[in-house]
Amino acid sequence: MSASKLKRDFYLRNNIILIAQELLGKRICSCQNGKLTSGIIVETEAYAGPEDRASHAYGGKRTQRTEVMYHSGGIAYVYLCYGMHSLFNVVTNRDGIPHAILVRAIEPDRGVDIMLRRRNRNSVSPSLTAGPACLTQALGITTAHNGINLAGKIIWIEDLGIKLRKKYIIAGPRVGVSYAGKDAALPWRFKIRNSNWTSKP
DNA sequence: AAGAGGATGCCCT
DNA sequence: GGGCATCCTCTTC
Question: Which residues pair with A32 in a beta bridge?
Fold first, then answer.
């Protein structure tokens, strides 16, 4: 099978919903201190910039934290949640339009032993990488990676040459965004149907 | 300068 | 299935 690193053009498109779906089945790779870990993306959520009340950038809110979302697509937005969890997002679109896609779950691929150690586990189960904070810990991603270029050699995403058909994608409401009013009901959470590696709720 | 709350996961029954 | 850990970010005084 042929794996090719996604190029900048992939992220620069002005269609966050499409990109969030296309990320399913892609492989996210992380190389930290020479240790390679990777997983197949099985769950994502779209956060569509200024119009989306669930987005950190709702209403064009621009702070030190959200600054990265306003850069051109193809970089990572990693922020801290509940004071202890690093959550990994892919920034999309062009300069000035703050779109970001949260990666919520992956299926472990390479470097499983390293992931087990990072997660303090001794056996492989969905809890190893199901959940946005779980997968970042497994991949060794922290807020230190905020703003990093996804075309580089530390964190990147690969196309495995597999086209996932629409019928294998489940769309539903996003997790933990009840404060977002009517935007809370938007079906912008995407999962691969029948995957055992998605997060629960 | 201070306080409230958050795109959660763990560890226990 | 439920309580708790734990600290940064933003808003407001």
Answer: A35
Strand B nucleotides in reach of protein CB atoms, 7 A cut-off: 5-11
C-alpha separations of A16 from A20, A46, A192 in Å: 6, 7, 17
- At A72-129, the pLDDT tens digits run 999 999 999 999 999 999 999 997 899 999 999 999 999 999 999 999 998 999 999 9
Nearest nucleic acid nucleotide to A121, CA to C1' distance: B10
- The nucleotide closest to A52 (CA, C1' atoms): B7
CATH superfamily label, A4-192? Methylpurine-DNA glycosylase (MPG) (3.10.300.10)
Verify if strand C has an atom below 7 Å from the CB of A65.
yes
